[in-house]
Amino acid sequence: YMKRINYLYTLILKCNTLRNITSKNVMIDASRIITEALVQSGADVFIGYPITPSNLFYSYSKERFPEFLAGPDEISVLQWMCGYSAAGKIPVTATAFPGLALMTETLNMAYMMELPMVLIITQRLGPSTGSATTGAQGDLKFIDGIISGGFPLPIFSPSNFNDAWTLSNEAVKTAVKFRTPVIILTSKELVMTQKSFDINSLEPIEKVDTTAKAFEPPYQPYKAGEDMVPTFYSLGNNEYQVRFNSSTHDNDGLIRKGTPESIANTWRLREKLEKRVEEYTFYEIDAEEGAANLIVTWGVTADASRDAVNSMRRKGKKVSLLIVKTLLPISQKIYDIIDSYDTVTFAEENMTGLYKEMIFGKRKTPKVKTATKFASMLTPSEIEEIVN
What we know:
Blueprint (H helix, E strand, L loop, with lengths): L1 H13 L10 E4 L1 H12 L3 E4 L6 H10 L2 E4 L3 H13 L4 E5 L1 H17 L3 E7 L16 H5 L10 E2 L4 H18 L2 E7 H5 L2 E4 L61 H15 L8 E4 L6 E6 L3 H13 L5 E5 L1 E3 L3 H8 L3 E6 L5 H7 L7 E5 L7 H8 L1
Parallel strand pairs: 2-3, 2-4, 4-5, 5-7, 6-7, 10-11, 10-13, 13-14
Antiparallel strand pairs: 1-8, 6-12, 9-11
């Protein structure tokens, strides 16, 4: 019975004609919302290896994706994803820190080969296997350095169900547009906790266009135009010879160690993402006029931060709130907002404030405060106490 009910909810999400209904509240979690958004965006194969707390993605994706594969381990999962991406598919997987650690080498390979794909990372308490059923926001700095050489990787982090829907669509768009792996960084609480939600508040999603863009002949698989992204043709196409290469390569995809063209091609991997970061930067700013204090947060801690801001405003304290949804690369807009306030409090569910350290380092300064919690979620009152 419950399986039929869950499947009905999936069909409701899929059918945009039902959005004419004024309200349709269902019990749902972000795993299902993200899964459905990815499928509607054009992701067409899910390859997974079960791991807590990403298990629901595994079970939901088996119902919804056109193709589903169960990998024998995490290393195989990402290897298979590379093959599917090279063949023109948009593959998706979901894992947690232990799985991502095993995927790291192949993720670097996919990055160098410029293969579009989406990885959902559900954060849990570490280190190592830690506590699989306890949430955390502890993976950010690991992901920041996961590509050897410090290359940027687009990281989206939903703060609520609506974000889970829209950012999943943006993840597919970004993966295809920039020919890159993309990570959706989420949390145990968001993807495993069901709550009543009006699914008709979700805007319709259009399938991402994967048509090969125009180029100036002859075709070279890694020759980029002004947008810094090479035209993508899949293996087995009937028009052009395609090479994918994870070693340092030239525009033809041939290993040319140390040549100016091959080094420039590697530099381009950074530039295509950093120089165009504004095209995929998302954030929410609730700015109160005259406020000198700013709370900066992301992901699951956003709800507690919203409640803290409302509480302080009721007491007459002026405070603004910045919810960052594109965590990496960091846009200049984020720096500018932070710099415009006298005091900034970072609210995060980890020991030291990992996002804070990415912006300000470990150095302590009177301007910067941290409201952090380890092994449990931050409460609004705890955030309010630090701000005050």
